[in-house]
């Protein structure tokens, strides 16, 4: 068996093709990450006039801080809730749209539109919907006997930010789930239907196992999204409150670094956050990928 090998007319052409991506990675990832790692070992005053090397003191101080430990648990609840809600809602919508024939393209277009909205705008929209004074949801809940107020209730605030962040990500998940559903051979589903399998059994025994590669990919993407890309949602809705109830790690990095001007602690938090995301990604590829059917 003869293998084909790509040959380039010039020696430097492959490097030229890779250069843009390498430059972007160096400028927007490697350089900021290295700066964060360096600054996490320093202690600076609020005006940046003096710098002292403190080694790992910033990290040790973080793990002795009750507010930071609370932020870790809040981030875990927020990431799990956002990932589960966005992926389950997207899968339900994808299954529903996939059964349509004439109106599939129209519904797909409508469901994809929210992904073009910035996270901060999504947060503002849901802030108005759940506003205790003018929002429609608190009005309906009040008629049902529940007094909604995310300004004073940490549980209400967490529900609000999870819904806002998940809604922003549903369109992205929906596109991949729909593409995965359309790639499944209909002959397999029809054969199972002929054998007497109902819709639920066909989905859980045939459709969902064949969707595991797509589900695994979206699981990794959604965890990263919840940990990094939800700053705008938090800032526009609760700003980490009330009483630190929604102060996730990425927002605490901003609050301590840009508001509190504690650059060393903020840099240490960003390094820990990056390490957590890398560790979660490695765990997902190491253990969860074993259950994926390619």
Automatic annotation (TrEMBL):
Q: What is a biological process (GO) this protein takes part in? A: transmembrane transport
Where located? Cell inner membrane; Cell membrane
- GO cellular component terms? plasma membrane
* Entry's transmembrane regions: 12-34, 76-98, 110-129, 157-181, 202-228, 267-288
- Its domain of life reads Bacteria
Q: Where is the ABC transmembrane type-1 domain?
A: 72-284
Q: Which UniProt keywords apply?
A: Cell inner membrane, Cell membrane, Membrane, Transmembrane, Transmembrane helix, Transport
UniProt xrefs under PROSITE patterns: ABC_TM1
Q: How does it sit in the bilayer?
A: Multi-pass membrane protein
- Alphabetized InterPro entries for the sequence: MetI-like, MetI-like_sf, UgpAE/MalFG_permease
- Subunit text: The complex is composed of two ATP-binding proteins (UgpC), two transmembrane proteins (UgpA and UgpE) and a solute-binding protein (UgpB).
Which protein family is it in?
Belongs to the binding-protein-dependent transport system permease family. UgpAE subfamily.
State what protein this is by name. sn-glycerol-3-phosphate transport system permease protein UgpA
Source organism: Billgrantia kenyensis
